[in-house]
Design brief:
By secondary structure, the chain is α+β, with helices and mostly antiparallel strands. It is built from 17 helices and 4 strands.
């Protein structure tokens, strides 16, 4: 606690040094660019790692791809949205860095009369271009090779997971042809369709699912998000339905929702959602922290899922021969109790039918998490590697054992 306070003080001191050497205007605008480019970089890396599901080897131009896309820039409306989302995040105790809003206020950067700071102009020349000159191509090629080598093992894990999801996609598709799926399984099928087939086919499936379950928040969110991404304004209604049914949905759909409203000139409505986002975010962060770890002293109660949903999960778990036992419970939580937190405890065993490819406990947990047909907050834990008291706690919850 003492060192955290010191580290927080050091962050402000570092910002003051930046302002002293580069000028307040330059230092503050550079900070804004870091937050905007940081949000953009997260999306770029996500697109790169998605390739692992389809390609066994990591790309040899990952760093080049990131730099090229960053240099190409983003649309002003996207940059403005990321900027305002960053400004909406309050300072917390998870990071020694203060929030962007607090750091800019400390700079005194264009923050008068409650108005937002001005979005800086795009960077025309990067520091790398200035300092490295012609050597930048050599440096980037070196980093490409280094990244490919360092990520080879992780990429293989991601590729294996992608192959398992692909197999499950085929199994779920065949099951859908043989019998009606639960709403949760149909949602998972649509998401896997987007990953392994096409967004167009996924949108068709999501439309059908929303007709079947018009109040399902996540189905509405997934459909609305994809429609707005393809410039179909009707997506707004689905996102708003998701927020009405589950207020937490705002945290996930805020970016496309806010950007669309601003583009349509609905500034007041966009501002009201921004204020709701700011109010909800701290509570959601505390809820995430509360649910991060599952321990043997946590309060567990019986789950409230329907028999049909449980049957769907059991069928899914039987696809993994490494599953020996499975326990499904609900964890009582203090923050956002209306958003149920489920815990699925897995006891693994050796796969005698395919010993060479038998999954380790952590691999099994990872793959079940990726394919589980249950939306909402679900924590899959491997009980082989946890204290025995956690196993005993789960198995004594009424109706917990499903496998």
């Amino acid at each position: 606690a003492y060192t955290f306070v010191l580290s927080r003080h050091d962050e402000y001191f570092a910002d003051r040094c930046s302002a002293q050497y580069a000028g307040t205007q330059n230092a503050a605008e550079d900070l804004i660019q870091i937050y905007i480019k940081g949000a953009e970089t997260i999306q770029i890396w996500s697109d790169i790692y998605k390739q692992a599901a389809h390609h066994a080897q990591p790309p040899d131009d990952a760093i080049s791809t990131v730099l090229d896309r960053l240099k190409a820039g983003t649309t002003p409306e996207k940059a403005q949205t990321w900027f305002e989302i960053s400004l909406a995040r309050p300072t917390d105790n998870d990071d020694t860095h203060p929030s962007l809003a607090d750091r800019l206020q400390a700079y005194g950067y264009r923050y008068q009369n409650g108005k937002l700071p001005t979005l800086p102009l795009p960077v025309e020349q990067t520091a790398a271009d200035s300092f490295l000159g012609h050597d930048i191509d050599w440096a980037v090629s070196l980093l490409n090779a280094e990244w490919q080598k360092e990520n080879a093992q992780l990429w293989q894990r991601l590729h294996q997971g992608g192959q398992m999801r692909s197999q499950f996609f085929q199994q779920l598709s065949r099951r859908a042809q043989a019998q009606p799926l639960t709403v949760e399984a149909a949602l998972k099928l649509a998401l896997l369709t987007a990953e392994f087939e096409s967004e167009t086919a996924a949108i068709t499936q999501l439309r059908s699912l929303v007709q079947q379950a018009p109040e399902h928040a996540i189905a509405n969110y997934e459909l609305g998000k994809r429609l707005l991404q393809t410039d179909q304004p009707e997506g707004l209604a689905y996102l708003e339905t998701a927020i009405r049914q589950e207020p937490l949905s705002l945290l996930y759909c805020f970016e496309p929702l806010y950007r669309h409203l601003k583009r349509q000139g609905q500034t007041d409505k966009a501002e009201s959602y921004l204020q709701a986002f700011r109010q909800l975010l701290p509570t959601w962060q505390r809820a995430q922290k509360e649910r991060q770890e599952i321990g043997e002293t946590d309060p567990f109660i019986p789950h409230t899922l329907s028999p049909r949903e449980v049957e769907q999960i059991i069928w899914q778990l039987t696809q993994f021969l490494e599953v020996r036992e499975a326990y499904l419970v609900q964890r009582q939580v203090t923050y956002l109790p209306e958003s149920k937190c489920y815990v699925l405890g897995i006891v693994s065993q050796f796969n005698r039918q395919n010993p060479m490819n038998s999954l380790q406990s952590w691999e099994l947990v990872e793959l079940i998490s990726q394919t589980l047909c249950l939306s909402g907050d679900v924590r899959v834990v491997g009980l082989n590697d946890r204290p025995k008291t956690l196993y005993q706690r789960l198995r004594h919850v009424q109706g917990a054992k499903i496998v």
